[in-house]
Amino acid sequence: MSKLLVPYYEHPAERPDAWDALIAAAPSLYGVVLNPADGPGSSPDDAFAAVAGRLRSAGVRVLGYVDTAYGRRPPQDVVREAARHHDWYGVHGLFLDQAATSARQLPYYADLRTALAATHDTYVTLVLNHGAVPHAGYARIADLLVTFEGPWSAYRPAGPPGPDTCHLVYEAPPDAVAQAPVHCLVPGRLPHPWGTLPHQLEPVR
């Protein structure tokens, strides 16, 4: 059964109806990516804390957004932002953006996984957003690999997707069909495609 992983980067005060739609769609969701300020921000945001609590109560996996700059960010910075997401928003795991794809950065992400597991007393779901097909070794580190991120016009995934792969597609038409078991196809366009929900969830305005 396919599931939606929704990276939704809008403030709850700006589009409460969209957050309501996400919560109502709980059974169809793999998870929702929480991104208050290109990460957790420098202080807690009460509106995001409230919506995170509603998502958890609905049984939705909440993932905190952290950028890894393709393995160039100091690991301690990533771990610190992960701890803020955990403490402020009660996330179940992390969505690590701009993840590297080559074998050379495998130790960086393996060490991150170990550090994150040591930081929390509960298991951390880890999603790596490579945006392209990475080295096979990353499948041993993460729970889910995003192997495509881009516009519908370029949506030509390389090879058959595995059970733990995700595709994130923007500029998608209403009849677009995903080719991965976990996915998100939205109508939004650059520079802010993830300010829209999948067609079937997007409230009528």
Please specify the SSE layout and strand pairing:
Blueprint: E1 3-7, H1 16-24, E2 29-34, H2 46-57, E3 62-67, H3 75-89, E4 93-97, H4 106-119, E5 125-129, E6 144-151, E7 165-170, E8 182-185
Parallel strand pairs: 1-2, 1-8, 2-3, 3-4, 4-5, 5-6, 6-7, 7-8
Protein name: Spherulation-specific family 4
InterPro entries: Spherulin4
Q: Describe it for me?
A:
It comes from Streptomyces xanthochromogenes. InterPro entries: Spherulin4. This is Spherulation-specific family 4. The protein has 205 residues and is α/β, with parallel strands linked by helices. The protein has helices spanning 16-24, 46-57, 75-89, 106-119; strands at 3-7, 29-34, 62-67, 93-97, 125-129, 144-151, 165-170, 182-185. The mean pLDDT is 94.
